[in-house]
Design brief:
Elements lengths: L12 H19 L11 E6 L4 H13 L3 E5 L1 H4 L7 H11 L2 E5 L3 H10 L4 E5 L5 H15 L6 E5 L4 H10 L5 E5 L8 H10 L3 E5 L2 H5 L4 E4 L11 H8 L6 H4 L7 E4 L11 H4 L6 H19 L4
Parallel strand pairs: 1-2, 1-3, 3-4, 5-6, 5-8, 6-7, 8-9
Helix pairs in contact: 1-13, 2-13, 4-5, 6-7, 6-13, 7-8
């Protein structure tokens, strides 16, 4: 029976840790220039309704390193859900390729794609969640702290798809998760309630950045206006300005706290140059780990681990 990677909520703690173990092995092989063509002769379609530098580069390069081939399909190539129905695209691509990665707007589209595809589907991002990103983030945290549990993670900014995925992870791995957002920009309440009901983590939704960063091991942020919200950017900037990750805010956090950002960063808005380029930043470690974790997910879904 085929398995998809649509949400961290679909995976157990043991499966998450297995993906991390595969990630370490593949990352070591990559660094040592050791061939690991586990997907030789296999192909992946990459459907992009939302463009992205890191998602395309990391998946395409990763598939090549695994010995396979990745085919980039732009919004103009398919027009998924508009020019052609999602279920028809799912059935057709399943006849050509061994696995599908899709970066979409509508979360219902990724669910429908997975329902009708006979090959594994990976969620490269939707408006609701971003599971590959958070898997890479947590793997990066593990590298720096040598553990994956009982850390305080503070996310500051819009309660968006990245925030939702952090909440889903907190339903699987024990942590103290704080989501700090302005009123009206909090994360999805159903997701928060689901995670709290699992009884795994301490989860708080706060509005005070200074209170939120106290004793944090990791301080995380994202853009204030995501793709598709450009018309709201000016208004959001006014609302979010006090949520900027800057040197002054870091004075209220543990001096050893690490700073993360999923990129692309709007320097001078949600994060300053001095922080993202500073000694506490592990932003580019997490960017690199996108590729290694995604390779592990591909390998696991294709049964090649």
């Amino acid at each position: 029976m085929k398995r998809d990677f649509l949400s961290i909520a679909d995976y157990s703690r043991e499966e998450i840790e297995e993906i991390f173990q595969i990630t370490k092995d593949l990352k070591d092989k990559t660094k040592n220039r050791t061939k690991h063509h586990l997907c030789e002769g296999l192909t992946m379609s990459m459907i992009f309704a939302k463009p992205s530098a890191r998602t395309r580069i990391s998946f395409e390069t990763g598939m090549v390193q695994l010995g396979g081939y990745a085919l980039y399909l732009s919004p103009n190539d398919i027009g998924i859900g508009k020019r052609e129905s999602v279920k028809d695209i799912a059935r057709v691509i399943s006849r050509y390729n061994d696995i599908i990665m899709a970066r979409l707007f509508d979360h219902e589209h990724i669910l429908e794609l997975a329902k009708y595809a006979s090959v594994p589907v990976i969620n490269g991002l939707t408006d609701y969640n971003h599971p590959c990103q958070i898997m890479a983030d947590m793997y990066t945290v593990k590298e720096h702290f040598n553990r994956i549990e009982n850390l305080k993670i503070t996310y500051i900014g819009d309660g968006n798809n990245v925030a939702n995925s952090w909440i889903n992870l907190a339903a699987k791995l024990p942590m103290h998760l704080v989501i700090c957002s302005p009123s009206g920009y909090e994360p999805d309440k159903t997701t928060v309630d689901y995670a709290k009901n699992q009884g795994i983590s301490q989860i708080e939704v706060l509005s005070d950045p200074i209170e939120s960063v106290k004793d944090a091991d990791v301080i995380y942020t994202d853009v204030w206006a995501s793709m598709g919200q450009e018309e709201e950017a000016a208004e959001r900037k006014k609302v979010f300005m006090k949520y900027q990750i800057n040197d002054e805010l870091l004075k209220h956090a543990d001096p050893n706290a690490k700073v993360m950002h999923c990129l692309p960063a709007h320097r001078g808005d949600e994060i300053t140059d001095s922080v993202i380029d500073g000694p506490q930043s592990i932003v580019f470690d997490e960017a690199e780990n996108r590729m290694h974790v995604q390779k592990a997910i591909i390998v696991k879904l294709l049964g090649k681990s």
